[in-house]
Each structure stands twice: as C-alpha cells, then as structure tokens.
Design a protein that fits this description.
Length: 341
C-alpha cells in the first residue's frame, strides 16, 4: 500500500513539473507577443537603396522603436522602390496599404499638402541650422494639421541635404550657363517654375528611373543632395557638379493616420518618441558622410564648381511672389519662414 502511495506521489510531482514546463514555454512564446495575437506590422517604403538618406532614416526609426517599446510590433523596410516610386509610396500610405513611408518632403507630398513646397523656394536657408530650426518649429506647427486632414500622420523631418545641379553638357559657373539645359526635377509644379526662372527645361522623372534617364541622355542633368548623387552613382553618367545649394531638402516620415489612431496609447507614444530620437541621428549620419562623398565624386572625375551664387539668388529672388507660385505656396508662409529662420 505504502509503495502504491509513493508511486502516486511521484507521478503527481512529475505531472506538476511537466505542467510547470508547459507554462514556462507558453510564457516564453508570449514574451514578445503579450496579447497572444499576431504582432502589429509596420511596413515602411523607401525609394532609395540601403545607403540612401530615406532608408537610413527608416532603419534608425526601427532601431529607436525597439529601444522604447517592448511589445508586439514588427517593422519591415522595403527599400529600392520595391513598393513603387515616391508617389506610389505616399498614395499607399494614404490608402492604408502601406503603414509608413519616408519620402522627399517637397516631392510627391505637395499633391495633398501644397504648402510643403515652401521648401522648394530657392535660397531660403543659408545653412542647415536655420533649416532645422524652421522644420522642427514653424513648419511642423503649420503643416502637421494639414497632413492629418489628408489622412497622414507626419512624424518629422529627416535630412536629404542642400540640393545641387549636375549635368553632362557643360560647367556651370553662373546662372546664365543654365540656359537651355534639360533638368530632371521632382513631380511638383513649383520645380517647373524654378527651372523656368533659370531658363532651363524641367523634366519630371521618377527617382528610381533617373539613372537610366541620365545614362540614355533623356535629360541633360538633375539636381539632388551630395549624398544622393554619390549613393545613386550619378557620377557615372554625369560630368559636372555645381555646388549652388539652391534648396535644403528634407525627407518626411509619414504614417497612415487611421492606422496610427488605432494603435494603443503606449505604442503611439513609442512611435512619436522613436521618430523624435531618430531624426538628429539621421541628420548627423548624413552630414558626417557628406565631405567623404564629395571627395569620392571628385576622385571619380567629376568637375566640381563653386558658382557665382549671387547670380542664382538674383534670378530667383521674386519666385515666391509670381502668380503661378502663389497658387501653390502661400506667400505669407514663405515670409513667416524668412522671419523665423
């Protein structure tokens, strides 16, 4: 009898251990999935390659989100335009088929928030510090509500950098040398007005098709920040680089607003914080690389010119007051930026 009792007790102990192990296994499985449901997935679309500013922004956002949120979320980055060009990516976010994208602020986004084209007003900023102050202050305050009305949650501005012209025809020493050149621009009307003021022809081409367009001579040149020119290897199909710095280019991190609003308060707060933390990291990363990229371009054989910038400023100084531009960007916003930089 005692033997049977001992055996029974042993079986109870063993069964208890097995149940305990089972409970531990379940706990481990749910450690990263506290709800027991599939994790929230955030798909981020970028058009650039792994070294492009937009993709770096997306990666740093992912890193920061992992630091500040210990929950059920999975970030998937789709780079190299795998989900389409910037217009398609922005449309996907608006429709909710893509949760988030990082795109050129004054590229495709003016289709919904025209005033973001204030960044396309030439020679508005003298340096990056002025640009950061305006982007993180007046611009965010003025434009974030407009993005929300269009179905976007604007999470902040990262860096592309000051934009410069390249071409394959001639060295540009002053604004008069721009006359007659065909220049690829972003798909936004204000860029057409800018090229018109420089007496050049504006040709809209998707960024992920730009290398081929330059290679085949569909356009004479293009304009982009140094990092974009280097990482996209435009130096292989362009001879001349003109450091005129006509506009400061930013990238916008935008998320589908309905998706954002449907998240827990904890996750929304984490997303906001991750965006805030990643922006200065991305700006510094791009800035640190810029001089190395410039040397790389020069070593590759590009002719790099510091032009007569005053001639460019003079040719474009009244651009924001022209009727066709006033229809796109409120001149009061331009003047507000000028007063606060």
């Amino acid at each position: 009898m005692k033997k049977n009792v001992s055996i029974a007790l042993m079986l109870v102990v063993i069964l208890g251990m097995l149940v305990g192990c089972g409970e531990k296994s379940t706990s481990d499985a749910e450690k990263g999935n506290k709800s027991g449901k599939a994790p929230v997935e955030i798909k981020i679309a970028t058009v650039g390659n792994e070294e492009h500013q937009s993709t770096i922004m997306a990666k740093l956002f992912e890193e920061e989100l992992e630091k500040v949120y210990d929950g059920d979320v999975k970030v998937s980055i789709y780079s190299n335009g795998s989900l389409g060009g910037e217009r398609e990516a922005a449309e996907g976010v608006k429709l909710g088929t893509i949760q988030m994208t990082v795109v050129t602020s004054d590229g495709a986004l003016p289709a919904w928030v025209p005033d973001i084209q204030v960044l396309s007003i030439p020679y508005l900023f003298e340096n990056k510090e002025q640009a950061f102050k305006i982007l993180d202050g007046v611009m965010s305050e003025q434009l974030n509500p407009k993005f929300e009305k269009q179905g976007f949650k604007h999470l902040g501005f990262g860096e592309l950098g000051f934009r410069h012209f390249t071409n394959n025809k001639k060295e540009i020493r002053s604004v008069k040398d721009m006359e007659g050149l065909s220049i690829r621009v972003q798909e936004a009307p204000i860029w057409f007005a800018l090229m018109k003021s420089l007496k050049a022809s504006a040709v809209p081409v998707s960024f992920n098709e730009l290398y081929t367009a330059l290679q085949q001579g569909m356009v004479d040149g293009q304009e982009n920040p140094i990092a974009s020119i280097a990482t996209s290897k435009f130096n292989e199909v362009q001879k001349y680089l003109t450091l005129d710095g006509h506009t400061y280019a930013a990238v916008s991190m935008v998320m589908n607003k309905s998706f954002y609003d449907g998240l827990s308060e904890e996750l929304k707060s984490a997303i906001d914080q991750a965006a805030k933390n990643s922006i200065p990291r991305q700006r510094k990363a791009i800035d640190d690389k810029e001089q190395a990229y410039l040397k790389q371009l020069e070593d590759s054989g590009m002719v790099i010119t510091d032009p007569d910038k005053k001639s460019f400023v003079e040719a474009t100084k009244d651009l924001y007051t022209k009727e066709e531009v006033k229809k796109l960007v409120d001149p009061d916003l331009v003047e507000l930026v000028m007063q606060n930089k």
